[in-house]
Amino acid sequence: MYEGAVQDLIDELGRLPGVGPKSAQRIAFHLLASDETDVRRLAHVLIQVKEKVKFCEICGNVAEEPQCRICRDPRRDLSLICVVEEAKDVVAIERTREFRGRYHVLGGAISPIEGIGPDELRIKELLQRLAGGEIMEIILATDPNLEGEATATYLSRLLRPMGLRVTRLASGLPVGGDLEYADEVTLGRAFEGRRSIDD
Amino acid sequence: MYEGAVQDLIDELGRLPGVGPKSAQRIAFHLLASDETDVRRLAHVLIQVKEKVKFCEICGNVAEEPQCRICRDPRRDLSLICVVEEAKDVVAIERTREFRGRYHVLGGAISPIEGIGPDELRIKELLQRLAGGEIMEIILATDPNLEGEATATYLSRLLRPMGLRVTRLASGLPVGGDLEYADEVTLGRAFEGRRSIDD
After folding, report:
1. Extended strands (E) in A6-140
2. Which one, out of A159, A186, B101, B186, has a CA that is 20 to 30 A from the CA of A75?
3. ipTM of the assembly?
4. Class of domain B72-168
5. How far apart are the CA of B12 and the nearest CA of chain A, in angstroms?
6. Taking every annotated instance into account, which residue ranges of this chain make up the domain Toprim (chains A, B) (predicted)?
């Protein structure tokens, strides 16, 4: 145990995800040895992020204005919505530069174990967006795991009767990976989704 | 890339030791989803730690008063000084309850690669403490690695001519470990430092 403020900082840092007691101690001593301006800047951005960052009223992505950068962008294709679990998935997809539509952030995935059902996700808001009639295709980009698949299945059953095109991101071998290291489910999916090479 | 404040927070978190870009992103989104009071408390302890925490004028340990808790404690044995590299080593040794003297925190170890020589460490301050004449033994508890050993060797050559008892913590097999997993240097040290079992 350290004296007052040092221990308080170690305790607070230890509450962050992925920061164990040893890392919390290392970070605390790093901050003790840092310039006061650096530490004040970190404290400042922490407060800023809570004051400034809101969630986009259209898609639920993080935003500093009522609407996020993507929903405000007039060049985005309004007929396409890509449904993701979290705001960080938006960033991952934006990095590919493959998608020119808009997003819808669910805020998680269906998980009976964690007590998350469809009502806990932003599905009602998605249906409201569809009411406008301009949307032609919904791309389900939830995570390729149990919860993500369950959520995609739930949404496709809900949306398909509405006459929309509902698609799911392809599963298969990761590019640059070794076939022998692929798990059997991924390898199975890669067979299932195989394409002619003159494609 | 995220919008303004979120990206600023990810950048600042990414500067902390042991926090890579992925962890910084995970922590930032955790904080976004946290209660504002929790985030404000973290910001507050960051500022507190820089405002309140000083270094003990005697030993260099962290302290919230001019002298640390240990140097202020009248029950500690004034004839013994344990020399360590960092304040976190003090906490590790205190946990053993084996040592009842006082400490001296060097602020690092001699490392020619990192450009740290004896002048960068609190060695002058150690010599000043010895001038009082009440100190009988110096225990060198620097890390059992290259830099720590070099520092211990340097200090023992400096201090021994002063007529003090200079000791070094024992090296050997870690308690509870498996002999077969010990590296050869540690195993060699364990042989070198072997003791009669009637000890």
Report:
1. 54-55, 62-63, 80-84, 102-105, 137-140
2. A159
3. 0.72
4. alpha beta
5. 6
6. 79-174
